[in-house]
Write a structure and sequence with these properties.
15 strands
Length: about 400
């Protein structure tokens, strides 16, 4: 069995034996916390230390970036708990970097068949999720979306949010609406409210998915919205306990701290879930003494395991899903992937952020942040050629250049 296949099995097992055990701990959570807190603190202090490079290799392995995985696009999206999708193309590039035999049409077909969807979930950002995860992860983070409305209270003065939710649901389920159309329709009901606040409230209160052709490869389309339940033909469940998602997060992003997962999810107060799960987890420390949790059978490769170059899209979750990002982003390169509101596509060399890149009509431009060895430059070019072959399908001829990446 390959390492990647083992990762898939680990992710599947999480929702079976791990989750069943997690449920059993919930009933006595308070008592357990009170009696085990000192012991847990002592255990954390004695836990083995993982260096940034060791954390890097473990995370890359879970993220399918040490070697390309022989997974389907759907299985990969599920294992990774979704893909950042603020723009249309990043999910495609994210899978191209991770999967053996991937083609953009594979993900596009899943979207057409409504097996994956684009929806606002973690950190109030758009993600591509499987249909099942859409109906469970969105309820999990719903409390955060409700809190988000506090920023728009002034524009929603006098608005009955329950009525707004019902009116908005009827509007978008009658036919998909753009945000502009939704604002205009809601203004008829609440003419004194702020139009933008009304539309944001609808997005926060309802699980609104972007309907196709938006998000399809090689197609274009406005953002038009309907509810996940209407699009998928089945209802979402109530907000689940976070425990199963904690285990899945560790399978995809671990080893990780409580704060790491809170950063990924945009949630707070997840310590209780980790404490309930502690008996079935293993613990480590980073070099700053922060306690890290992990699944006992999760892969933790040696720190000197080779890590090939990878071209990642802007907003890739690898760079956004930990409170301490030094496992991927060297301290001296913090903030280098942004310029104002512009996020750049990123290059990994030896597993760490090493540059940015841009793809134009006839050229792939690569800007390393430091000096690459001759061997590294050759590997980067080879990886660039592979990425272009997958994403462009051999239809265009590209030059590969090392230079300065300006605004795309």
């Amino acid at each position: 069995m390959t390492k990647s296949t083992s990762q898939k099995a680990t992710a599947s097992q999480v929702t079976a034996s791990h989750v069943t055990a997690a449920t059993a701990f919930q009933a006595n959570a308070s008592k357990a916390r009170a009696s085990k807190a000192p012991k847990a603190s002592r255990a954390a202090a004695a836990a083995p230390v993982l260096t940034p490079r060791a954390l890097n290799r473990a995370t890359l392995d879970r993220q399918l970036l040490l070697r390309r995985a022989p997974l389907s696009a759907k299985d990969a999206v599920e294992h990774l708990l979704g893909l950042q999708a603020q723009n249309v193309k990043p999910p495609y590039y994210a899978l191209a970097a991770r999967l053996d035999g991937f083609t953009p049409e594979a993900l596009s077909r899943l979207m057409s068949d409504r097996e994956v969807v684009r929806i606002v979930t973690m950190r109030s950002t758009i993600h591509t999720h499987t249909a099942d995860d859409c109906l469970t992860l969105r309820p999990l983070v719903q409390a955060a979306r409700d809190r988000e409305l506090n920023y728009f209270r002034k524009g929603l003065a006098g608005v009955d949010l329950d009525r707004l939710t019902a009116v908005s649901r009827e509007l978008v389920e009658t036919e998909p609406r753009t945000m502009k159309q939704l604002r205009e329709a809601l203004l008829v009901e609440w003419p004194d409210a702020d139009p933008q606040s009304l539309a944001v409230a609808a997005r926060c209160r309802l699980p609104l998915v972007q309907v196709t052709p938006r998000g399809l490869w090689g197609r274009s389309g406005q953002v038009a919205l309907t509810t996940a339940e209407h699009w998928l033909g089945r209802p979402a469940g109530p907000a689940p306990a976070p425990d199963p998602t904690v285990l899945r997060y560790l399978a995809a992003f671990g080893p990780a701290s409580v704060k790491d997962m809170q950063t990924w999810a945009g949630l707070t107060r997840l310590r209780d879930a980790f404490e309930r799960l502690r008996p079935q987890l293993v613990t480590f420390r980073d070099e700053n003494g922060v306690e890290l949790f992990d699944l006992p059978d999760a892969p933790r490769p040696a720190a000197d395991t080779p890590a090939p170059p990878r071209f990642l899209p802007e907003f890739d979750n690898l760079l956004l899903s930990h409170a301490d990002r030094t496992r991927v982003v060297p301290a001296g390169l913090k903030g280098r992937t942004w310029a104002g509101n512009q996020a750049y596509r990123t290059l990994l060399v030896d597993g760490f952020l090493a540059g940015v890149w841009r793809l134009d009509e006839d050229a792939l431009t690569i800007e390393p942040f430091g000096t690459l060895t001759r061997a590294q430059r050759q590997e980067v070019v080879q990886e660039g050629e592979r990425m272009l072959a997958v994403m462009a399908g051999g239809t265009n001829s590209y030059d590969i250049r090392f230079g300065t990446v300006g605004r795309a």
